[in-house]
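Exercise 7.
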Amino acid sequence: MNHVNHAKVLLVLLSLMLLTTAGCSGYHQGRPGSHGEPTIQEVVPEVKQLVEQNVKDPEKATQVQAMVQDIAKEVRKSNQEVRGFHEQLASLNADYNAKPDQFLKILDGLNNTRMESAMKILTMRFKIKEMLTAEEWKNLNDAMIKVRQEHEKKPPGGAMPHGTSSSPGY
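Solution. The predicted structure, written as tokens, is:
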């Protein structure tokens, strides 16, 4: 999943955090929000509002909101790193004489970067879970699922202009 799917995953930040850096299939489809998915900038305030509505203790809600912001920062950082790896792959793909081991070295770096980011996000997810009661966790998760479903119902927009593609060709 790439930055397109990262924004989508942020929408269900607390329930699907592991998926934020799991792959890159959407990378080839354009920028975040180009297919109706919300961007990180749109999602974080929504998630913070859901936290405020579903976490009873204001101090605890503030701490969870700060962690949501930390997760968003990690997602942005990961997206930037993934784009760098994709650029390396695109450049290497243009090299007729490129060897498989050159691709594998880049892919190893990409996968290691994703795993590190996923682990950071997973750690934050469990810290958030520890702060919340089971009821708060369920209510927050249910609210995020509802919002995600509402976003999924919105028609896709921002299609790429005719004859253009955001795919780097590999």
